[in-house]
Amino acid sequence: MSVDSSKQPADALPERSPLIRLDRVTKRFGENTVLDHLDFSVDAGRHVTLIGPSGSGKTTILRLLMTLTKPDEGTITVGGEQLFPASEKRRREVRKKIGMVFQQFNLFPNMTVLRNVTEAPVTVLGLSRDEAEARARELLDMVGLADKCDARPSRLSGGQQQRVAIARALAMRPQVLLLDEVTSALDPELVAGVLDVLRDIARSTDITMLCVTHEMNFARDISDQVLMFDSGRIIESGTPEKIFADPEHERTREFLGAVL
Ligand code: ADP
Ligand code: MG
Question: How far, CA to CA in Å, does 39 sit from each of 15, 75, 112, 233?
Answer without folding.
Answer: 21, 10, 41, 9
